[in-house]
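Hello Y.,

Per our agreement to keep a running log of every chain we model this quarter, I'm adding this entry. I've kept the format consistent with earlier entries: sequence first, then predicted structure.
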Amino acid sequence: MLGLPGRDEQIENYQQLIRNAGKAGIPLLWSHYAYFIKAVIPVAEEAGVKRALHPDDPCSDDG
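Predicted structure for the entry above:
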């Protein structure tokens, strides 16, 4: 995704998904994130790709 054509549009789509979830009162739970990470990290390790999480990701309430 990053560095590829359409990257910015994909980010904007994801941002809109988060906005819509918030408006609908749908929480983005840590369990959903954990499910994703547990599925992705083993593949990244097999491929020799390092993953990291920035201290502000997901961002705090103040931005």
